[in-house]
Amino acid sequence: MPKFPFPPATLIKTASMLDKLVAQLSTETLIGVDSESNSLHAYQERVCLIQLSSRTKDYIIDPLAIHDMRPLGAIFADEKIEKVLHGAEYDIVTLKRDFGFEFNNLFDTMIAAKICNIHPFGLNHLLKAFLGVTIDKRHQLDNWAVRPLPQDSLIYAQMDSHYLPHLHDILYVRLKSLRRLPDASRAFQALTKLAPSAVKQFDPSAFWNIAEPHHLSWRELAILSELYIMRDELAQAKDNPPLQIISNNQLIALAQASPTSLIQLEKSHILTYKQRKRYAKAILTAIKKGYEIQSLPPPPELRGMESLVADRYAALHTWRKERAQQQGIEARAIVSKHVLLELAQHPPDSISQLQAVKGIGELRAHTYGEEILQILDKFRIS
Question: Are 162 and 6 in contact (CB under 8 A)?
């Protein structure tokens, strides 16, 4: 088994190179697959790299440079080629969204590790435990849309798929020895049926989500609602995530301070100099609108709930946020807020009941079921 350093990945940057790669990979029986997106650096995320690894060679495809990615779809759909991913759900739904790919014959090393009761089951932990390899996860937060990408980033991307075939072999033997291959196969099959990730849509009433813990007055809520809309408009114009424009805590502080002039805004010390220089005019305009509006969109369903349901929801929401940070993905890719609310209102008692909840299904129940039930158990009435 090769260990790093190994030959650099072949960069695929043209349609002709992609066609040749597809022809080469069509004879393989197993390939490792990973992808990198720019969700932390863009308003609307997109897949920026696709990494593929056979047992002998690594490839990095640049979908930002290739206009038509459809030829690659033949590899992902081919039932004769096993595709090995780690934490496949996010890759699957984003690749389906951006390129319309369909998937067959998948193996998820994270799901396999969980079924084998191996903990921790993060890729770095598994590689270190079974292969003696450590990956520098600092590059997980890189902006993958930057071109040219630094060599260190390309090496990180290559390593994320390079070891997947070897890890597959180890976990396959473990699953077989435990007689858990049928369970794993069902979970892998469920991955193929995942719907594409939804394109991000702005919800102007979502300001309630950040307002909830701060007990703002009605007028402060009105100002916050306008600041929330303003931030999203700026983020879309700059193609940046909203939190990179102004943080949630800064929005709350601005709503509470409600400065109406440049001098008041500067004396509040809420924003950095660069933020004031770039956004002062838009902020003051939004605050002025907040003073003028007479109605607000209704709050989310959580308001007015009994305290036990609210406590369950808050605990699940915190878990989802932390889990997403661990995996380096958006929280909504774990499970939607609507599903969290359903779980808080009607908590399941078992994995089978959890699996039946709309929006959970077999795959999420396998991946997150035990964690969710442990959280809900803390709030059960004896």
Answer: yes
Q: How much of the chain, in percent, has pLDDT values that exceed 90?
A: 78
**Bridge partners for 108 per DSSP:** 85
Top CATH class of 307-377 equals mainly alpha
Measured CA distances, 205 to 53, 197, 225, 228 (Å): 44, 22, 7, 9
Nearest to 52 by CA among 5, 16, 17: 17
Specify the DSSP class assigned to residue 3: -
Range list for CATH 1.10.150.80 in the chain: 204-292, 307-377
CA distance 153 to 115: 31
pLDDT tens per residue across span 235-293: 999 999 999 999 999 999 999 999 999 999 999 999 999 999 999 999 999 999 999 99
Burial (CB count <10 Å: 0-12, 13-18, 19+), residue 34: buried
The backbone torsions φ and ψ at residue 52, rounded to the nearest 5 degrees and listed phi first, read -130, 140
Q: Is the peptide bond before 120 cis (omega within 30 degrees of 0)?
A: yes
